[in-house]
Amino acid sequence: MTPDPNNRPGGPRLVVTCKTANKVQFFDAETLAMTGAIDMPASTHEMVRSAGGGAVYASVYGGGIFGRNANPDRRVAVIDLEVRTLARMIDLGADVAPHGVMLDRDGMLWCTAELGNAVLAIDPATGAVRSVDTGKAAHWLAVSHAADKVFASCKTSDFVAVIDRSGCEMTGRLPIPDLAEGLCVSPDGGSLFVCAHRTPTLYVFDAATGTLRDTVPIMGGEGKPNQLKRVRVSPDGRFVCVSSLLDNHAAVFEAGSLLQIASVATPKGPMGFGFAQDERHAYLCCHDDAVVLEFELTTGRITRQFSTASGCEFIIAY
Q1: What is the pLDDT of residue 65?
Q2: What is the spatial distance between Cα 199 and Cα 223, in angstroms, rounded to a whole number?
Q3: Beta-carbon neighbour count of residue 9 at 10 Å?
Q4: How many CB atoms are closer than 10 A to CB 88?
Q5: Does 1 score more than 60 pLDDT?
Q6: Whole-number Å distance between alpha carbons of 202 and 239
Q7: 10 Å Cβ neighbour count for 84?
C-alpha cells in the first residue's frame, strides 16, 4: 500500500503555524529549542508537506475567524523546510480565505475556499486551480485514496461534502445532524472520522460507501455546545485524537475498538495535532495560551510542553 502523504511518520524537527502572530516557527523535537522563524504576510493556519517532503504548503487565511473574516487572503505559501524560508506564494485568484490543505497521491494540493463555498484542486507546479462547488462554506478537508474521495466539512451546515477525487466534482453529502466540524481519514483510507459542532460526538463512516458505522461520545470535557473540534489519526493507524477548544480538553481513542483511553485537561484553546518520530507521543497546539503539549498516546499523560508565538494552530514533525 502506498503511504498516505497526509499521514507521514514524524521526524526530528517541528514546524508550527502561529496565526495571530503572523509567524511560522521551527523547533528541534529533542531539545524543544526554537531553530528559526518566518514572518508571514498574513495569518497562516494549516499546513501539509509537499510530495517530496522538503516543503510545506500553508494556507494564508487572512484576518479574522470563521464567519467573521474581515480581511480574507487568497494565497497558499510554499515554505522550504531545509532552509526555513518562504519560497513563494500560490495565488488562488480570489479572496476566498483558504484554510484546510491536504495532498493527494498524484501531488495535487486540495484546499478549502471558505468564502467561495468551494474546495480547490491546485497544481503546485503551475498554480492552476480547479474549483468544486460545495454549496456551503467548507473549512476542513480529508482525502481517502482507497475510496478516491475528498471530504470537506461545512461547519455551519449539517453535512460533509463528498467529492470524487479523479473527477473533481461533488457527488454527495454525509449527514451530520449536529453540524460538521473537524474531520480526518485513517491512514489506510477506510474510515472517515467527523466531529460534531454542537455536541461532544465523534461520527465514524465507511469512507468508500458513506455508511455510518458508529457515533462515539467524547467523554471528560464539559461538553459545551458550538465549539471548534479537531480530530486526527496517528500515522500507524492505532490512535484517534480529538481536541475540544472551549472545553480545554483532549481525548484519545483506540482506533480499532473506538474505546476512549485518555481524557486530558489542556491549556486554553487546544487545536491541531502532530505526531512524534517515536510513534509513542503526539503534539497538541493550545492556541489561546501559545503552548504546544507533548503527550503519550497510550495514556494521554503530558510529558513536556513549550511556548510559541501567539496563536499556535497546527504542527508537523518532519
Answers
A1: 74
A2: 7
A3: 15
A4: 13
A5: no
A6: 14
A7: 16
- CA-to-CA dists, residue 175 to 64, 178, 212, 223, angstroms: 28, 9, 9, 21
Torsion angles phi and psi, residue 71, rounded to 5: -140, 70
Q: 152: which strand partners?
A: 141, 161
pTM of the model: 0.97
315, 16 contact by CB (below 8 A): yes
CA atoms within 13 A on the CB side of 288: 12
21-56 burial, b for 16+ CB within 10 Å, e for fewer?
bbbbbbbebeeeebeebbebebbbbbbbbbeeeebb
Grid coordinates given for 9: 511518520
SS3 assignment, position 268: coil
What is the residue whose three cell numbers read 510545506? 56
Looking up cell 524560508, which residue turns up? 85
**Which amino acid is residue 192, in one-letter code?**
L
Query: Predicted confidence band at 155 (pLDDT cuts at 50, 70, 90)?
Result: confident
Distance, CA of 34 to CA of 309 (rounded, Å): 11
